[in-house]
Amino acid sequence: MFDFDLLHKTLFSMQDSDYRIFQCRLMPGVPEETVIGIRTPQLRSLAKVLSGNPDINEFLDCLPHSYYEEYNLHGYLIERIKNGEECARRIDEFLPFVNNWATCDTVKPKALAKNPAFLLEKSREWIASGKTYSVRFGIEMLMNYFLDGGFSPEYIEIVASVKSSEYYVNMMIAWYFATALAKQWDETFPYIKEQRLSEWCHNKTIQKSLESFRITDEQKKILRALKI
């Protein structure tokens, strides 16, 4: 049987009060009483240890959690799952309970990255779900794994077609397009030139691109002239 009391004691033994204050400022929508304040390397180290626990599935089955760090720990444990279908199943269970951008962005599913076709299919599903952090996660997967060797112009259209009033979805859209401009300028630039994104996403994409060291000075000059 998984010992949840021991887990909580272990988590609070890692607490950094100053870091907790810093984290809470970055996540204004997350109740402060649910944040312990633990640095990421410590949580990842704990996930490595716990992944060998024969009862760890009891923790993964126990949703929702009480603390922000438990969700991050959950994400890091999902990362360590080697079977792609099991990894995807656990992500599907997990995402509906995610309530902040930091937890959403922390999960890097290596098992899924080894099967691009399956990851692409799942990314489409997450984006189509309409749920804020599932959509954000799906777009992030397209950004992280499909803007290099596995790129296809149709993936840009998937992201461009997302229409949302959710701040954290729109931030990810802008982040995606700023990254796409850096990696796939020729295919991405028409979306900015022809103003195919919402005004907010359009301007935020340009802002993030101007802050990027991967965008050339000439490209930045062009983008500045296109701000709405």
What is the element layout, followed by pairings?
Layout: H1 4-13, H2 17-26, H3 40-50, H4 56-61, H5 68-79, H6 84-94, H7 101-106, H8 110-113, H9 116-128, H10 132-145, H11 153-160, H12 167-183, H13 185-193, H14 199-210, H15 217-224
Commentary on this structure:
This protein is an all-alpha fold and 228 residues long. The chain is built from 15 helices and no strands. It is globular and about 60 Å long. The model has no long low-confidence stretch (mean pLDDT 97).
Short description:
By secondary structure, the chain is mainly α. It contains 15 helices and no strands. Helix content is 66%, strand content 0%.
Q: Could you tell me the mean pLDDT? A: 97
Structural class: mainly alpha
Approximate helicity band: 55-70%
- Span between N and C termini? 58 Å
Runs with pLDDT <50, length 5+? none
Give the H and E element order. HHHHHHHHHHHHHHH
Percentage of β-strand residues: under 5%
How many β-strand stretches? 0
Main sheet: strands, sense, barrel: none
- In one word, what is the shape? globular
Total helix count?
Answer: 15
